Amino acid sequence: MVERILAATQQALKDLMGNSSELRNLKASDFTDEKFGVPTVTDIIKELEKPGRDPRPEFKTAQFADGVETMNDLQPGMILEGAVTNVTNFGAFVDIGVHQDGLVHISSLSNKFVEDPHTVVKAGDIVKVKVLEVDLQRKRIALTMRLDEQPGETNARRGGGNERPQTTARQPNRVGVKRSLPVTAR
C-alpha cells in the first residue's frame, strides 16, 4: 500500500514521511482495493504523518557486570543487575549474564511475606540481586533481592520477616454440631 502511495506522489519514503501538506492532499479512496478499504488506507496515511514514532513500549535490558561472564566469575556477596526470565510458585529465575539463570527463592524476593511471586516480579523485569551461593557442580546459583541479606544466612537464623505467620490450631466446627465443654473433676 505504501509503495502505491509513493508511486502516486513520486516521492521517496524518507521525503514523504512527516510531510503533512503532501499527505493531507491524498484521498484514501484513490488507493483502496479488495485488500485495503478506506479506513485502513486513512490509518496508513495518518501513520506516515508521524515520522519516527514507534508505538511499542521502551524495551529495557539489564546491564550485565563487566568481567562476569561465567559461573566461575561469580562470588557470594556480589550485587548484579539481571532480567527476570521466569516466575514460578517457588520463586523467580534471573538472567545475570553467565549463561545459567539464578534462582531467587520466594523467601528472598522481599523483606515481607510473599504468598505469590507473581505479585512481586514478572518476566522481563530488570532487578538488582545479590549472589548468595554458587554451586558449580550442580550448576545452581542462589540469589536474593534482599540486598541486606548475607551469603550463608538463613531466614530462621535471622528471624526475618519471610516466615509464614503463626496460626493456632483450631478444630473445625461443623454447622449444627454442638460442642460440649470438657468435664472437670470435682
TrEMBL record:
PROSITE patterns: S1 (PS50126). GO terms for cellular component: cytosol. Coiled coil: none annotated. GO terms for molecular function: mRNA binding; structural constituent of ribosome. Residues 147-186 are annotated as: Disordered. CDD domains: S1_Tex (cd05685). Residues 77-146 form the S1 motif domain. InterPro entries: HHH_9 (IPR041692), NA-bd_OB-fold (IPR012340), Ribos_protein_bS1-like (IPR050437), RuvA_2-like (IPR010994), S1_domain (IPR003029), S1_Tex (IPR044146). Pfam families: HHH_9 (PF17674), S1 (PF00575). GO terms for biological process: translation. It comes from the Bacteria. This is Putative transcription accessory protein. It comes from Escherichia coli. The lineage of its organism: Bacteria, Pseudomonadati, Pseudomonadota, Gammaproteobacteria, Enterobacterales.
